[in-house]
Amino acid sequence: MRENKKAEVLRLLRESTEYISGQELCEKFSVSRTAVWKIMKQLKEEGYEIEAVQNRGYRLLTVPDILSKSEIESRLDGGWIGKQVYFAEEVDSTNTWGKRLAEEGAPHGTLVVADEQTQGRGRRGRSWQSPKGTNISMTLILRPDLEPARASMLTIVMGLSVAQGLKELLKLPVQIKWPNDAVLNGHKLCGILTEMSAQIDYINYVVVGTGINVNLPEVPEELKDIATSLLIETGHRVNRAEVIGAVLRAFARNYESFLAAGDLTGLLNAYNEILANRDRQVRVLDPKEPYEGVALGINARGELLVKKADGSISEVYAGEVSVRGLYSYI
């Protein structure tokens, strides 16, 4: 049985509250009884607890936190995101892998996921740790019909999508620290790195790498004032594949709005409503001349509007400076 049919069987098992007979699976997927038996055997070997009862069929008893190609595919909606899914137990960086696949012609919407990254990267060359079995490390390959100058806004689109996906799935008060950090209780959950290959007026491809701290039991001592994980904040483990599905559903919706407008116009209200910096005193770490002011929200280009003490409003571009709270990370 092909891998995509395995994902369909898994989705059917997870969504059903009743037993599903082997005959029903055979007819639905046009496969033999032997093929159904083999896929059930594979799923059990991967860690799924499946009950098989004679004359009744199969039933999924538990939904473990497993990352695999089939599990990820079974969480997607069958749209343009994830038409091709690549999964590895370990890679150096999903962005590096994604760029290699994009150079080889991987289509728009290709999704790359790894259980562990050994050389994950953040902005400005910072490292992003992702130990085995704990976090989400994924990269989405995009081929948008956009001017290259607009591609940086995709980072904000993904940041908003992470926050919305987590809120919708887990009912948590996730916010955004400008420009794209998903935060919970004042601590960072997510890092995003967008990289592009382009000509002067044409984008070859964009890779949007997203790392989410999910089941990390603790963060390094030097990051405890800044970072956190869903496990730390909720006290229980969270299914990573389910989070991937929720985030990418939000991204598909937000991406269409972004493409239609060519900027963030259609996403402004949603973004500013959950902007943790909004109406707060911030310090703009401009290398030329740092200054303080009140963050008002973003404009359609994703720039942060900061009102200075003299009443003037500056437009802060994320690629040039960082913004911090006066006394904390936010």
Describe the protein in words.
It is a single chain. The chain is an alpha+beta fold. It is 31% helix and 24% strand. The protein has nine helices and 15 strands. The strands form four sheets. A five-stranded mixed sheet has the order 3-4-5-10-9, sandwiched between helices. The longest helix is centred in the last third of the chain and has 22 residues. This is Bifunctional ligase/repressor BirA. Keywords: ATP-binding, Biotin, DNA-binding, Ligase, Nucleotide-binding, Repressor, Transcription, Transcription regulation. It catalyses: biotin + L-lysyl-[protein] + ATP = N(6)-biotinyl-L-lysyl-[protein] + AMP + diphosphate + H(+).
Brief digest:
It contains nine helices and 15 strands.
Strand arrangement within the widest β-sheet reads 3-4-5-10-9
Unreliable stretches covering 5 or more consecutive residues: none
Helix content: 25-40%
Order of helices and strands: HHHEEHEHEEHEEEEEHHHEEEEE
Characterize the largest beta sheet: strand count, sense, and whether it forms a barrel. 5 strands, mixed
Oligomer: single chain
Q: How many separate helices?
A: 9
Mean pLDDT: 92
- Count the beta strands: 15
Query: Shape, please?
Result: elongated
Strand content: 15-25%
Structural class by SSE content: alpha+beta
- Return Rg in Å: 21 Å
C-alpha end-to-end distance: 50 Å
GO biological process, one term: regulation of DNA-templated transcription
Pfam family, one: HTH_11
Function: Acts both as a biotin--[acetyl-CoA-carboxylase] ligase and a repressor.
Domain BPL/LPL catalytic: 79-259
